[in-house]
Amino acid sequence: MSNESVVEVKNLTVGYGDIVVLKNISFSVASGEIFVILGGSGCGKSTLLKHMIGLYTPFRGDVLIFGESMVNSSEDEKRKLMRSFGVTYQGGALFGSLTVAENIALPLEEYTTKTPKEINEVVQQKLALVNLDGFGNYMPSELSGGMRKRAGLARAMALDPTLLFFDEPSAGLDPITSAELDRLILRLREELGTTIVIVSHELDSIFTVADRAILLDKETKGIAATGKPKDLRDGSPNLWVREFLTRSKLKRDVV
Amino acid sequence: MGSPSRELVERIGAASTSVFRDMIEMVCFVGDLSKVSWRVLRKPSQLRWKETLYYMDMCGSQAVPIVLMICFLMGVILGFQAAVQMRKFGTELYVADLVGFSILKELGPLMVAMIATGRAGSAFAAEIGTMKVNDEISALETMGFAPSRFLVIPKILAMVIVSPVLTVFGDVIGIAGGFVVGTTMLGLPLMAYYNRTVEVLYPMVFILGMVKSVVFALIIAVIGCLRGFQSECNAQGVGRATTSAVVTSIFLIVIADAVLTIIFSLMGY
Q1: Which residues of B lie closer than 8 Å to A, measured between beta carbons?
Q2: Domain at A5-85+162-254, CATH class
Q3: What is the ipTM of this complex?
Q4: B142: which chain A residues are within 8 Å (Cβ-Cβ)?
Q5: pLDDT averaged over every residue in chain A
Q6: Torsion sign over Cα B122, B127, B128, B132
Q7: What does DSSP assign to residue A105?
């Protein structure tokens, strides 16, 4: 793992209208790292992700992707920068009017000079990568939730980005499918050296995949803790952080 | 606690700002769209032909039966109402004039636009709204695409192509409706009605109707898409966006119709 940072968030303040959701957030993600953004519901982790990938403009601060500013670039520069990374959305966000294969082929058709035959080869290869061989001609509505997510991942990887963002990859998946997805994420990093940023609150999957995590706090609108999830769980001085990572409150309620 | 009159003023103020904001958003949307259209115009390979053809089929060929049906009945109704009045003066033959001018200048384009608003405009808003709910719009953006190139330009192009064609169908069948009334109820000779229609109508009447239909098509497609993009990210939001698309389109179509009619009459047609 090199120390050069792929994503850098600098003094970011975000929110909607007059409401500030997160204040003065700064962190960076190193190349080849699997970085998890954690937090309770409504703490702004999805909002943070949407700012990082350039869908929203922050109140203040900057997001640098591969050293280039996402906030202060022109629309065209931003579009170009966006092509350098892939995003996998919660529900897959496949285009419903296109087949799975056409979904994956879309960025290849638009951004490369590949022939239809070469594009098809890439599509088959990506489908195989996410274990969806033979599903190319299915419409997204014919796939299960987990398959749609994996197809979304295949599409995000179509242009072989070295940086991937995941929005709640395991939300709504059964434990086995969720574990498979975790293995896939680890494999991507291992085989391709991809830097991966994940927004999640699924503890099992976080302990399996994350190199480093930040925990967002709704009350202080900032980062409550940074570090390796296991270390945070066992040694964080902040009680709330330890409770969050051990679900201890929940356990107390049940027992 | 404000007094009732103060509350009234506040409500009027709030409503005005929301209308004003909506107008600004509309202008921004059209501006953004013009920019993307210009790029596509300069580089036609960027146009999504597959989608354009899909929407031409959806908004065009699939709408033919309902357009024929409604325009025919409009012709019949117009002819019937005119016949009742004209008969009093013994000027039954003028039914041909009334039906011909009304259909070509007004009712042909207007009825086609109303049908298209209900069929296409609402569908555009619902489609884009649902795509927004499913993060598909976000996905398009983070893939580095301008969403309007994929989602708006094909719809506008399809509407602008098929709307005049549908209007031609509507015009012909509408005049036929009047013809049926004239020849059956009024007992006018077939040839007399036909000759009268051909005699009084001149090409410019038809062209004005076509101009109207293109303007209406633009309004329907742009408003449908705009409302879809403005939709909130939930099921009710999509429903409201769809309603708003239809209501706003009808409103703007009627305004555009009035403005165009005034302009055309000032030009002497």
Answers
A1: 51, 54, 131, 134-136, 138-146
A2: alpha beta
A3: 0.86
A4: 53-55, 82, 85, 87
A5: 87
A6: positive
A7: H
